Amino acid sequence: MAVNINTVYQTVLYVLNKEQRGYITPAEFNSLAAQVQDEIFQSYFPDGNQVNRLNQNNSQNDTEFFNIFKDISYKLYPFEKEASFTYNVANSGWIYAGAGTVFKLGDITSTYTNNPTYNSITQLASKSDYNKIIRSKLTAPTKQYPLCFTTTTTTPVAPATINQLLLKVSPQPDSLSINCLFKPSQPSWSFTVGTLGQYLYDSSNSVDFELDIAEQTDIVINILKYCGIIIRDPQIIQAAAQEAQQVEMNEKS
Fold first, then answer.
1. N or C: where does the chain have the smaller number of CB atoms within 10 Å of the terminal CB?
2. How far is Cα 221 from Cα 247, in angstroms, rounded to an integer?
């Protein structure tokens, strides 16, 4: 379940206004919301790696609903999707042209439809290793054991250009699908202006946080921390930082 952006914004405003410490505009809030969501999303990976070491030492709690590694994995499930890549003749490679931004690549499957048909897991290598491997007759990739590397290409999208992930695969498959991890969509608190000039929440054009509902407290705390920087109030920064530290200690202890 996603975190409602209006609930977070109203909570942040309530905390700030309770002590008459200032006001955060919707534009400022949206910038902070995007920053905090990205920070929390990025934290899953080092946290998961740390907890995984506990699994290897058999010191992790594996009781249902109390397995931290399982909880972190659960929070990433909504961002994990199998994406079909399209061959781009101009760049002699495969690009993802669908919605969303690819963050990490998982299993890469190259499909060859000529008899016999292969659905082959494709090894991802660096460009330098790729160039060395394909030059050797002993290690050259085959339809059963294809090889690929990643690079980027620019695509014109008015009024500018965007960078897109590009995969080079050898031998050339007939289709390519990849289990990808996508970045969460950028949250946005949208509004209309009331008769008194006040901001009125516009739910139809707003974008909620895509993080799990369990992250609502962390989102509020971390946004408040940045709010303290914007309005130059060290007490807010200190209080939010202490609360964030306590939450983290409780989660990892």
1. C
2. 10
